[in-house]
Amino acid sequence: MSALEAIDDLTGVMLELGRRARAAAATLAFADPAAKVKALHAAADAIDDRRDDIMSANALDMRAAEGKGISKAFLDRLLLTDKRIDAMIEGLRTIADLPDPVGRVLAEWTRPNGMQIRRVATPLGVIGVIFESRPNVTADAGALTLKAGNAVILRGGSDSVNSTRAIHACLVAGLKAAGLPEDAIQIVPTTDREAVGHMLRGLGGAIDVIVPRGGKTLVARVQDEARVPVFAHLEGLCHTFIDKSADLQMAIDVTVNAKMRRTGICGATETLLVHRDVVDTHLKPVIDALVAKGCEIRGDEAVRALIPDAVPATEQDWQTEYEDAIISVKVVADVGEAIAHIGKYSSHHTEAIITEDAASVARWFNEIDSAILLHNASTQFADGGEFGFGGEIGIATGKFHARGPVGVEQLCSFKYLIEGTGQTRP
């Protein structure tokens, strides 16, 4: 069936996907860890062997997207290169070689009556992943969910349909090589948007959690309509603060990387805050370095007094995830004002401070309520692969169960195992 082919009985097809995923999840919950390792290494081999096929499929998607006049940031997320395919392969192998998360003893204790209690990690079950444009999510999500003993149903964006199908075929090849159920990793066989609605309604109880990976519109829809739990972040409005003790060269290097390495990812810095005591020494060199890389500056009055070409920043700028080569810049009195600004405008994703002052670092780490906080490092490290997770299924900014990069450990729940010797409750 073509991915673009209309499906007459979409409800039936989606419910069948759910039924098959649930059956696969029941097998994966107690699958031999060695089989999962074998499947992931075989999938990595398949991606390497079929590299030309994947690149050809991606070229089809890129041509179609370019014909629609889609933004540069979107095209960058969609593009697959040899380097990005290498990263996918490395991610699969890294995930394969992680300790198996299923069955880990998370805690254990003995009650006064002699009962021994253990809290043990278990798979969540069936994960629904809804994503846009980034075809590498197919590999990341498939690998992470499998390693954690879960089945997954993937619904990629229509713009990446050919790339997604090509990568998915490699994951299925890995499952077959290891003798694991091929239904462990499924893709929705249509680009019909109503398929998303079916997933959000849970496919008749088959889906245990939904993970959206995409723009604000997609995530907002998922959060509004989902009838199952959601791991999500609405947007990545990330900040970098240059404190008064910041090393100048470090401030330049980290800020330029945080904004310009890849402007379209959720970990890109969107607002730069600068301590007023280093405006004369640090502000212009940092701004000059950003402008040299093609970044547009939107600044408050203090910034524009030094950088006349800066566009006046509006209230909306402090609230905007640009996903582009644009940054808003504000001068603040101290670390306290920087923290207050972040408290007002942040999406609770990622915030970085550049400083040599331990007291400022302590306040940054203790007082900011975001999923990821960094000291003297780029916000673009907000990535599961950089955390050593091998990849991520998304960045969660909520406070229940999972927060930050969602890797294999976050794709597990737990149960209690209790050993008794005939105890009865009085």
Low-confidence stretches: none
- The end-to-end span amounts to 62 Å
- Fourth CATH level, the homologous superfamily of the largest domain: Aldehyde Dehydrogenase, Chain A, domain 1
| Gross CATH architecture of the largest domain | 3-Layer(aba) Sandwich
* SSE class: alpha/beta
Number of strands: 16
Major sheet summary line: 7 strands, parallel
Give the assembly state of these chains.
Answer: single chain
List the total number of helices.
14
Element order, helices and strands? Answer: HHHHHEEEHEHEHEHEHEHEHEEHEHEEEE
Strand line-up across the major sheet: 10-9-11-8-7-12-13
Give the SSE map.
Blueprint: H1 10-28, H2 33-49, H3 51-67, H4 72-78, H5 82-96, E1 105-110, E2 116-123, E3 126-131, H6 136-147, E4 151-155, H7 161-178, E5 185-187, H8 194-200, E6 209-213, H9 216-225, E7 238-242, H10 248-260, E8 269-275, H11 279-292, E9 296-299, H12 301-306, E10 311-312, E11 326-332, H13 335-345, E12 350-354, H14 358-367, E13 372-375, E14 395-396, E15 404-405, E16 412-419
Parallel strand pairs: 3-4, 3-6, 4-5, 7-8, 7-12, 8-11, 9-10, 9-11, 12-13
Antiparallel strand pairs: 1-2, 2-16, 14-15
